[in-house]
Automatic annotation (TrEMBL):
S-adenosyl-L-methionine binds at residues 233-239, 254, 280, 295. This is Methyltransferase domain-containing protein. The active site is at 348 (nucleophile). One of its GO terms (molecular function) is RNA methyltransferase activity. GO terms for biological process: regulation of DNA-templated transcription; RNA methylation. Residues 129-416 form the SAM-dependent MTase RsmB/NOP-type domain. Keywords: Methyltransferase, RNA-binding, S-adenosyl-L-methionine, Transferase. InterPro entries: MeTrfase_RsmB-F_NOP2_cat (IPR049560), MeTrfase_RsmB-F_NOP2_dom (IPR001678), NusB-like_sf (IPR035926), NusB_RsmB_TIM44 (IPR006027), RCMT (IPR023267), RsmB/NOL1/NOP2-like_CS (IPR018314), SAM-dependent_MTases_sf (IPR029063). It comes from Rhodophyticola porphyridii. It holds the Pfam family Methyltr_RsmB-F. Belongs to the class I-like SAM-binding methyltransferase superfamily. RsmB/NOP family. It comes from the Bacteria.
Length: 416
């Protein structure tokens, strides 16, 4: 990108400010009236600067006598990212960073500094960059993750966050392959190269985008053909589609009308059916069902590879609130089951309080619930995915050699 990419870069700087200062998720940042290609580039640059923020600051630090204001810092971070990772013409990158600095009174006085520092980064930065460890998680995540899995695993998870995430697909029919993808041991398809929109089968609904880890909770229910299944917190519907494709009579419930509109579109595209309920799980009554799947709202810390903005926006306090909600939801979900019915509880979180500990506490509260230990090997997984209480703990550092997976926790419970 040269000077002609200035609009995308300016939008990336605005987005960085919104994430870092206003604590807004990148998915909620409005890139204004930019053409779609520039908007996509702005979001990509923002996400990548956030992914590597600690490393970028480490490269810049030796050239700064004192820390400049956040607006100047972000111009330097963006320029350094483009120099060190995107790697197209250093001259153009430095010139556009200087042009961006001159645009605003808060940064104009630092345009000389931006010029000088980025020229040094272009020369000496690559050697430092290679040696600098991945951006660390914030303390409120490092502590519980390190405590649960150990320091080496924590470092491996941070490395996985740095590496980013491939795109996985779930085929509507088991065993179907799609050119341009490879089949993973669990049956998901992983995009090898190119754009997902260019793959055959999208319009016909032959597959949908879903991380390999996210595709496993629905499979814990086994054969669901003709079973009545309540999918709680269903939108945008990845798990609803899986259950419907396997022949279940699905009732999909979610509180969000907007997200349910996406679930409706997904059902229409794939030619699958589900009964749709827009309601708060805590107020709704219905059933009983043969099975319930609860994909509870959570910190989403298992998806940091895809959403590197999350650690900057979420907080320990927010997770505490979510943990209380998950507990209430689990208690409610159990009441929708027929006697002998099965319940899958899952979250895309790395935190035991949203996974393992939540299930252990539910088993203590309800002596009519028991856990059915999951055998990951039967799902194409590995024995090391088992967690002591009988659930499955998936981590982003698993499958490191072939692109990793999202962090997820899931457990299969049964009402006695
Ligand atoms: C992790 S997402 C679900 C992803 C979905 N299961 C899938 O596979 O595509 C959590 C969902 O919980 C929904 N939710 C949050 N609070 C809720 C509540 N009180 N009642 C029902 N749904 C709720 C959110 O709207 C969000 O769609």
């Amino acid at each position: 990108m040269s000077l002609e990419g200035l609009d995308a870069r300016r939008a990336a700087l605005d987005a960085l400010y919104e994430v870092l200062w206003e604590k807004r998720l990148l998915s909620h940042v409005n890139t204004g009236a930019l053409p779609p290609a520039d908007a996509a580039r702005a979001k990509r640059l923002t996400a990548e600067v956030l992914r590597h923020l600690g490393r970028l600051d480490a490269v810049l630090r030796p050239y700064l006598a004192r820390r400049p204001n956040m607006a100047v810092q972000n111009i330097l971070r963006l320029g350094a990212y483009e120099l060190l990772v995107d790697g197209s013409g250093a001259h153009g990158i430095v010139n556009s960073a200087v042009a961006l600095a001159k645009r605003h009174p808060r940064t104009a006085r630092a345009s000389g500094l931006v010029n000088a520092v980025l020229r040094k980064v272009a020369e000496d930065g690559p050697a430092v960059w290679e040696k600098t460890p991945p951006h660390p998680l914030p303390v409120w995540l490092r502590k519980p993750i390190g405590k649960a899995f150990g320091h080496d695993v924590l470092l491996a998870i941070e490395a996985a966050h740095q590496a980013g995430a491939p795109i996985d697909l779930t085929p509507k029919t088991d065993g179907v392959t799609v050119p341009g993808t490879e089949t993973l041991p669990t049956g998901s398809l992983r995009l090898k190269h190119g754009q997902v929109s260019a793959l055959p089968g999208y319009a016909e609904g032959a597959w949908w985008v879903q991380d390999a880890a996210a595709a496993l909770p629905a499979r814990l229910l086994g054969d669901v053909a003709s079973a009545s299944v309540l999918d709680l917190c269903a939108a945008p519907g990845g798990k609803t589609l899986q259950l419907a494709a396997r022949g279940a009579a699905v009732t999909a419930l979610d509180i969000s009308e907007d997200r349910m509109a996406r679930l409706r579109e997904n059902l229409a595209r794939t030619g699958l059916n589900a009964q749709i309920v827009i309601a708060d799980i805590l107020d709704w009554s219905g059933g009983p069902f043969d099975a319930v799947l609860l994909d509870a709202p959570c910190s989403a810390t298992g998806t940091i590879r895809r959403h590197p903005d999350l650690p900057f926006v979420k907080s320990a306090e927010e997770v505490e609130t979510l943990t209380r909600l998950q507990m209430q939801m689990l208690d409610r979900a159990k009441d929708f089951l027929k006697p002998g019915g099965r319940l899958v509880y899952c979250t895309c979180s790395l935190l035991p309080n949203e996974g393992e500990n939540q299930v252990k506490a539910a088993l203590k509260r309800h002596n009519d619930l028991e856990i059915i230990p999951v055998d990951p090997v039967s799902l194409g997984g590995e024995p090391g995915w088992c967690s002591p209480e009988g659930g499955l703990r998936l981590r982003p550092d698993f499958w490191a050699g072939c692109g990793g997976m999202d962090g997820f926790y899931m457990a299969l419970l049964q009402r006695r």
